[in-house]
Amino acid sequence: xxxxxxxxxxxxxxxxxxxxxxxxxxxxxxxxxxxxxxxxxxxxxxxxxxxxxxxxxxxxxxxxxxxxxxxxxxxxxxxxxxxxxxxxxxxxxxxxxxxxxxxxxxxxxxxxxxxxxx
Length: 118
Prior knowledge:
Largest sheet: none
CATH class: Mainly Alpha
Structural class: mainly alpha
Keywords: Signal
Number of strands: 0
Protein name: DUF4810 domain-containing protein
Helix content: over 70%
Order of helices and strands: HHHHHH
Organism: Herminiimonas contaminans
Pfam family, one: DUF4810
Number of helices: 6
Number of domains: 1
InterPro entries: UCP020555_TPR-like (IPR014508)
Radius of gyration: 18 Å
CATH topology: Serine Threonine Protein Phosphatase 5, Tetratricopeptide repeat
């Protein structure tokens, strides 16, 4: 019985990942240690997303949203909205949060547009 339990435990630990996380953990750790590395973290998220979309691997929950949030911080509202829409489509349970982030990004885009006209 003990041998069966141990083998089941080891088999469960060796199961392949359900989602493609890329180097998310290492990238996020570097970003948290030094927030000036946001561009590197965004590039890693972009690589992971592109790899997932190209290979058909399921993208991990929240990656589109996090990438979109980094785009929003850089002032790229339209790119952010695109990522929030992808997150919402892939993970419908995130609809309420993504709709709010889309509204914030839309307001940000409107303010940026108005500032350019002045």
